[in-house]
Amino acid sequence: MTTFQRMVLASRPQAEVTPDNFRLETADVPALADGQVLVRNHFLSLDPYMRGRMSEAKSYAAPQPLDETMIGGTVGQVVESKHPKFAEGDFVVGMGGWTEMSVSDGSDMRKVDTTHIPLSAYLGPVGMPGMTAWYGLTQIMQAKQGETICVSAASGAVGSVVGQLAKLRGCRAIGIAGGKEKCDYVVNELGFDACIDYKAGNLRADLKAAAPNGIDAIFENVGGEVFDAALARTNAFARIALCGMIAGYNGEDIPLRNVRQLLTNRISLRGFIVSEHMELWPEGLKELGMLVAQGKLKFRESVADGLAAAPDAFIGLLKGRNFGKQLVKLA
């Protein structure tokens, strides 16, 4: 193979992301320098944070440059190596981006074992989404046995792990998701105690019925009305892990109506970026990997076929059309 395809950011979205914001290009396979590794990527991870990177607005990370390969997590196999720590045939997880092949100096890569864990799972429950869930639950929510936790986007790659980890720790887990199919999956497959369909139009009443004794900790992925409803049910000294605000990813202002609850319930609210806490990844990944290998942590994937399908799959992710972890199969 002498050429490969990559997807670049062609223009910045003005509001909603469109396919025209991306461009598919063909590139030549580069020659490696000493210390470099050439990887054929098998799966690409699509994640909501990418929407923020497409904007030039000030954020926790630099914007995605125009006319460069879109940023993204990947899993693949080393096809050539001039690096002492990586050999041809090694399976690796890294940040190859939206591309069939990528070159790395190894600093953003780690070898993974596919004996008991599927390769794609290293982009989901045993990767960044799983670590996001683990960190938020253990370090911020600090959920204890007998407490009630609430998770928005509960059927997604992050939310699904939060609830399962909470159940393993003896908590009552309440999910919020869009549509009966997703809610049924959250309860019947993932083992949550309840799941509220926010599209059904009875969000506040349903949440009150599901959490009659209130909510002790919230893992927030959505913002807006969903967050307001959960805030209204909080108990004193509740803890909130603020992970995402997908309701405002296109630049919309997200009002917070129950902000008084933060004071009256003495709530701790903390936003976090999991990549800033790499010192805890070995501990978290060890637990997550063990649970997946033992079949105790379930996950679901939506897989788009081929790099050309990535833009539509990403737009669908932002609109909630995916079910579980959104991936693109590259090879």
Automatic annotation (TrEMBL):
Key words, A-Z: Oxidoreductase
Gene3D superfamilies xref list: Medium-chain alcohol dehydrogenases, catalytic domain, NAD(P)-binding Rossmann-like Domain
SMART domains the UniProt entry points to: PKS_ER
Alphabetized SUPFAM superfamilies for the sequence: GroES-like (SSF50129), NAD(P)-binding Rossmann-fold domains (SSF51735)
GO MF terms, alphabetically ordered: oxidoreductase activity, acting on the CH-CH group of donors, NAD or NADP as acceptor
Ranges where the Enoyl reductase (ER) domain occurs: 17-328
Pfam families for this protein: ADH_N_2, ADH_zinc_N
Protein name (database record): NADP-dependent oxidoreductase
Taxonomy of the source species: Bacteria, Pseudomonadati, Pseudomonadota, Betaproteobacteria, Burkholderiales
